[in-house]
Amino acid sequence: MDHAPQLIQERSAPPATLVIFGASGDLTRRKLLPAVDNLARHGRLPDQFALVGVARTPMSDEQFAESALGGKSLLDKRQLAGGVRYVAGGYDDPETYKRLAETLDELDAVRGTSGNRLFYLSTPAGAFEPVINGLAGAGLNQATETSFARLVIEKPYGRDLATARELDGVVHGAFEEHQVFRIDHYLGKDTVQNVLALRFANSIFQPIWDRSWIDHVQITVAETLGVGTRGGFYEGAGAMRDIVQNHVLQVLALALMEPPVSFEGENLRNEKVKLLQAIRLPTDRDVSEAAVRGQYTRGGTREELMAGYREEVGVDPLSRTETYAAMRLNVDNWRWAGVPFYVRTGKRLPARLTEVALQFQRPPHLPIPADQLTELDADALILRIQPNEGISLRFGAKVPGHSFRVRTASMNFSYDQTFVEESPEAYERLLLDALIGDASLFIRSDEVQQSWRIVDPIIEHWERDRSPIPSYEAASWGPTDADRLIGRNGRKWRNAS
Ligand SMILES: NC(=O)c1ccc[n+]([C@@H]2O[C@H](COP(=O)([O-])OP(=O)(O)OC[C@H]3O[C@@H](n4cnc5c(N)ncnc54)[C@H](OP(=O)(O)O)[C@@H]3O)[C@@H](O)[C@H]2O)c1
């Protein structure tokens, strides 16, 4: 039987073993192990907690423990001492799972981990299937009346709708949906969850959160970095699969969905799915009007010259992979009919920022001469997901002086300045949720499928289109086609300086 999610004030993990597959990898080292360390430091893990790494790279328990938490390790001290193991073995070798099962039984006996297991798949996607089958082959997928077996799966979850469904087939062959936690680390960010707080813990925003007040919405996920050493991986993904299909559509769903009955997992996810279902797909004919791709070329300044995408390590010199994607989406429901949603993401843009900007309609009549309004933009509410986490409300204010000039001013809420509490890292929050059994910030199977339904037609259109991929210089705001996309209706991107 699965444990019921705990109340917010009691958010500590139950006795459990966290098993990380791909334990020798980058994500494990940079995010997962520090998250475990932080949870331990913040008193969120019980003494009956254990950690097991699994990967092919030979390592001893001690070496993994060392790589786990390094010099500052809590391992040598109370909490995790004696509770770290490493199982070396191939992902499709039944022996690996036999040894893992023995290790888990031993930990249950010596650590009191109560048979509760959280399996975290932090391998490249090609290893998901053998690991899931290996776990099932050893009976490790089985929950009991008193213990849980849960699976956390990293992205990418398929590379289109068909492969996502295939992966679902494999997953559901071994685990029931309530045991599955598909991770999108964006949902672990406090600022993403604050979209829910802003919308549903206040009454003032709800009446203006619709087509009567909002002219359009822009969602931007901009990165300054290029692909770095991940060129080989990125070649098989591109901006649409890497960012839009998951992070962008998740943020969009939270920002636009109807109020859920509660934030409990199924209620919240039902509303997200309904919103995603309401997104109208572009027909093949209008993809070229509704979606734009781009690839960065060499750019920057004399001091900081940046290579073009095709010059990056692991990238095909004739690559057609998009490093930038922008789309106009329409949501066909009562709240949003007729409001365009512009989303964009790109690498090597001039600023690193993620934000949702709701731009309000202009007043129906302005009793002020136009030449006194030249510095007035439309009112906007901007949710800054990262960096400078916070919210800004932009509106017109009279400029002090003898004339009646009106200029845009803003009210700012900043996380940093308002709260003394520190935000936990996204992975820390999500690991704790998975240990507790709270699935509200994880992606349900039907959500993944809806997201692929939306991006698939565009990706397919681009794959068929043999015309040259539009380019943009590194450190610029994307291809000019993207300006045309939003400019068609007289709007423009909010480009931070
Ligand atoms: N790194 C990130 O920042 C990040 C961010 C978001 C999502 N993710 C996702 O998280 C998962 C893990 O990412 P990662 O960056 O940690 O990956 P990684 O370093 O390439 O791989 C993790 C481990 O998986 C094992 N592995 C199994 N099959 C492999 C194969 N065919 N090729 C290479 N390694 C293989 C390797 O360990 P052994 O050789 O020892 O078995 C490797 O150390 C991926 O699904 C990735 O998409 C990563």
From TrEMBL:
The active site is at H247 (proton acceptor). NADP(+) binds at G22, A23, S24, G25, D26, L27, T28, R29, R56, K155. Residues 19-194 form the Glucose-6-phosphate dehydrogenase NAD-binding domain. It catalyses: D-glucose 6-phosphate + NADP(+) = 6-phospho-D-glucono-1,5-lactone + NADPH + H(+). Pfam families: G6PD_C, G6PD_N. Pathway: Carbohydrate degradation; pentose phosphate pathway; D-ribulose 5-phosphate from D-glucose 6-phosphate (oxidative stage): step 1/3. Its EC number is 1.1.1.49. Residues 196-494 form the Glucose-6-phosphate dehydrogenase C-terminal domain. Substrate binds at H185, K189, E223, D242, K347. It is an enzyme of class 1 (oxidoreductase). Signal peptide: none annotated. Keywords: Carbohydrate metabolism, Glucose metabolism, NADP, Oxidoreductase. The keyword NADP applies. It comes from the Bacteria. The keyword NADP applies. InterPro entries: G6P_DH, G6P_DH_C, G6P_DH_NAD-bd, NAD(P)-bd_dom_sf. Belongs to the glucose-6-phosphate dehydrogenase family. Catalyzes the oxidation of glucose 6-phosphate to 6-phosphogluconolactone. NCBIfam families: zwf. This is Glucose-6-phosphate 1-dehydrogenase. It comes from Actinoplanes couchii. The gene is zwf_1.
